[in-house]
Design goal:
There is one protein chain. By secondary structure, the protein is of the alpha/beta class. 49% of the residues lie in helices and 13% in strands. The strands form seven sheets. Strands 2-1-3-4-5 form a five-stranded mixed β-sheet, sandwiched between helices. A three-stranded mixed β-sheet has the order 12-16-19. The protein has a three-stranded antiparallel β-sheet with strand order 13-14-15. Helix 12 runs antiparallel to helix 14. The protein is extended, with a radius of gyration of 41 Å. The N and C termini lie far apart (120 Å).
Length: 617
Amino acid sequence: MNEQKITILYERLSVEDDRNSESNSIANQRELLSEYAERNDFVPYVHISDDGYSGTNWDRPGWQELIARIDSGEVSNLLVKDSSRLGRDHLRVGLFREMLHDNDIRLIAVNDGFDSANGEDDFTPFRDIMAEWYARDASRKVRSTLHAKGHKGIPLSSRPPYGYIKDPNDNTHWLIDEFAAEVVRRIFDFTIAGITTYEICQILHDEKTERPSYYLTKNGYSVYNGVLEMEDPYAWLPEIVRNILHREEYLGHVVNFRCRKPSFKSKKMEYLPKEEWVIFENVHEPIIEQETWDLAQRLCKTARRLDKYGYVSPLTGLLFCATCNSKMHHHRSKKNKHDGYECAAYANNRNQFAKDVCSPHCVSTKALREIILETIRKTASFVQEQEEEFVAIMRNNSTLVQKNTIKTHTHRIAMNERRIETLEKMHPSLYEDRVNGIITAERFSQMSAGFEQEQSELIKQNEAMRLEIEVFNEDNQRADNFVSLAQRYTRFEELTTPMINEFVDKIVVHSPVWSEATETNCRLGTRTQQIDVYLKYIGRFEIPDKRTPEEIEAERIAEEKLEAIRKKQRDYMRMKRARRLAEEERHRTEFFSPTSEVDQLQKPDAEKIGIQELLSA
């Protein structure tokens, strides 16, 4: 034996093995291999162990150390308890055996009675295949167990999401970690306030808030390898923030089967479409309310980037063109102090000389903010002062009129259900009468068709009434939701980003109209533009007009007088501008008009006299 080389005693124990069995423990493997090595003079030897690693995992640290020592040429013998300790993939184990053979390393599997010095054993490949079958069978059993647990609402994740910790008395139940939960709530509040994910990361870093992996590992709630040695534990990443914003677990739900492994040999996870997820609602105490989560999801779908002036418009994604239903693009320039929105379809096609494109629909951001603030202020004030009238208006908008109340609909649905059940029982009796010759075939066909038609009509009636009841209940719920939202705000002096995100659903911008537009010039007179603001839950709500006919007529007359004054001012300015242009044209004509020959001859002398006078002075 080459004294310069060593013998490796390799032990491995995985979660699939029976850890309660003493024969499989790492300590027992160490004792068995040490005794065999000393008895057969395999010295010096070194123990290398992988505790808690599957045989299908080839990234285990002990195994990597073993490969490194073999590559360095310092190994002469390798001892294992049995062939399955090497791994449970017969192809990779076979390649490893070839590597040992090429490096002239002796392999001994003690319990299998295998020693490569005695030559190849014909049963060895079958042992490797059986080891792989064992891993495949164990994987199938584990997958079946997880499938059963997952469909019972038991969380399959080994780590609760940041903001929760496992209940010490029940590992399948999560408790709120108040410190981390407060960070999660702030992230949602920042998003609703229009702050980008990158800015959220910067805020949390400046406040020295530990990133989730570091916090969980430091407090012993979970283990992330190597995070405690990171240079900056406060370095949040945008991906972490986005992951928190999209976790439905913060609503108190359990979400299972979000991802899976394609094979028991693979460690790569593949994410499944949301349709294949299994969600159990209201299992744990929620950290985020449903309305807040829904609003954050809508805001996450709209890209919010800093422009070149370091500004993020909170109205982005809310404005739509009334003509082509395209989004409105924000344009801002410090040079000409322009700040407004323009139809995206028009902006994208005007430089391509496309025909029949939409018009600009331009509107300034300042005007939009004033209209939005005024709409929210008036609607919220009306709701706060006239709550009963507001709820009544929302109910009257329902398709369910007063004479068809929920009570009558429910009673009618019950009657129809009883009639449908009776018709179901009558059909077999009718068929028996046909078989027994009590009724003719033609009569049977006629009556059967009549029963089926009646049954079909009753089913359609029930579906329509249920839909009306559902719409009625939704109208009531929407009204209650908006009342709750309006009551949270008491001051409306300034339009804030959270106010925009919580109140506004969308804004539709119509094309401007000019009072004196002509065929040749459409931009004449007073410019008016309709802006429709659709609020959350209630849409475009029209506040009841409490003015008297006299007040309406007085306002109309006042507006006509004001428009007449504006028209006189515009006519005066047009006349003044026409005079100025005529005067400029006259001066331009005189300056460039040809002069006489006498003037041309006398002009140089006059210039000389003028120069001499200038010099003498």
